[in-house]
Design goal:
The protein is mostly beta strands and 208 residues long. Helix content is 9%, strand content 47%. It has 3 helices and 16 strands. The strands form 4 sheets. It has a 4-stranded antiparallel sheet, with no helix packed on it. Strands 5-6-7-8 form a 4-stranded antiparallel sheet, with no helix packed on it. It has a 4-stranded antiparallel sheet with strand order 9-10-11-12, with no helix packed on it. A hairpin with a 5-residue loop joins strand 3 and strand 4.
Length: 208
């Protein structure tokens, strides 16, 4: 398997026995048994012409930077370097809807089938919880939003901090976030409040 663009991730779809790779520009489906390329989706983020015209995105270069999918393998969610988030039908590539965009590059996304939540994080550490009602509309339904860390130091140093991992526990409605500076936060997503904050760097320094 190979791609002409940088691959940001991949996953296995057991319903069609395909490995799906997402690169900075394309989504490709590969047969798991013989490695044959089955189909390619190109320029998916340009699929909604109304949004593109309104925001002048057709004249701006972008890259796909994050993705996620539902547990039924029906929908694919893509985020890009412009902060846009869109959903598509996985098997056809047809556009479904836009979600409220971020002002900066999308770095992480998670989807919860239990709550119909799409959780997104951007490079400015802003977290948004979107409600996905599954309808074909462009009405933004953001349940909550917050910053994972407020800038307490210089702007230059703050911009170097980024989210490394997001984990969501559907049974307990808990979101765990890990930042590059060693800060781990635990959130109650249903009530959207912070439960715990652990500073790993301070822990290691104090242990010395």
């Amino acid at each position: 398997l190979s791609d002409e663009y940088m691959i940001i991730g991949c996953f296995y779809n057991p319903k069609i026995n395909n490995i799906i790779t997402i690169s900075s520009k394309k989504v490709k489906f590969w047969n798991i048994f013989n490695g044959k390329l089955m189909k390619t989706y190109s320029n998916l983020m340009d699929s909604d012409s109304i949004t593109n015209i309104k925001n002048n995105y057709n004249d701006v270069s972008y890259e796909i930077t994050s993705f996620t999918y539902d547990s039924h393998f029906k929908k694919l969610y893509l985020g890009d370097s412009l902060g846009r988030i869109k959903s598509f039908y996985m098997l056809t590539g047809d556009f479904i809807k836009n979600f409220e965009p971020h002002n900066y590059e999308i770095t992480h996304m998670l989807y919860s089938n239990k709550f119909d939540y799409l959780i997104s994080c951007s490079s400015d550490l802003k977290l948004k919880v979107h409600k996905d009602n599954g309808q074909k509309d462009n009405e933004y339904k953001v349940m909550r939003e917050l910053y994972l860390m407020q800038p307490k130091i210089s702007e230059k140093s703050y911009n170097k901090i980024f989210a490394k991992k997001l984990v969501f526990d559907e049974d307990k409605s808990l979101l765990i976030t890990c930042l590059s500076n060693g800060l781990i936060n635990e959130f109650d997503v249903e009530h959207f409040k912070m439960l715990n904050e652990i500073d790993l760097m301070r822990f290691f320094y104090d242990s010395d």
